[in-house]
Amino acid sequence: MDDQLSARRAREGDEGFTLIEVIVAMFLLAIIALGLIPGLVGALKMSALNSTIATASQLVGQQLDDARSRAATCTALQAYQAETIAPVVDARGVSLQPKRTTVVCPPSYPGVVTINVYVTKTGSTFKIASATTYIFVSAAS
Question: Which of 16, 19, 100, 130 is most buried when burial is the number of CB atoms within 10 A of its CB?
Answer without folding.
Answer: 100
